[in-house]
Amino acid sequence: MTAIVEEITIEAAPQRVWDAITQQDEIIQWWADKARLKPEVGSLAEFRFRPPAGVLQFEVAGLEQDKKVHWISRQGPPPWAGTSVTWQLTPVHNGTTLVFTHEGFTQVDGGYEQTRRNWKYFLDSLKSYLETGQGTPGLPPSVS
């Protein structure tokens, strides 16, 4: 199995980063066009994007307040079948280190590479949103 792993440091407290990845009014500021989610284990989170991306659904599989969020993909592009996403937060002197992992890919192909590029774009959007108040939600320029 193959994984996408990205590590970034964000100049924001872990509580602020946690809110940005668990609250629907926050997620639409840096990632999806629309979001419906509850930070509750077992709930189904839904994220909507303009076509061609469409709808993504994740089951909230694990939560550790201000430390970790774990999702399991339930609807998305075919390469995402059986994959999971983990957001690991660690406080550091100037904010939070975020280790993002999207794992479980059965093959490294065009779908995997596109996913890797898209997550890099959205993690940069998250960082920008938390540090400057301005994210870039929706589709990355290469997809639209």
TrEMBL record:
Annotated ranges, domain Activator of Hsp90 ATPase homologue 1/2-like C-terminal: 12-131
InterPro entries given in the database record:
ASHA1/2-like_C, START-like_dom_sf
Fetch the Pfam families from UniProt: AHSA1
The similarity comment for this entry is: Belongs to the AHA1 family.
Q: What is the protein name for this chain? A: Activator of Hsp90 ATPase homologue 1/2-like C-terminal domain-containing protein
Q: Which organism is it from?
A: Ktedonobacter robiniae
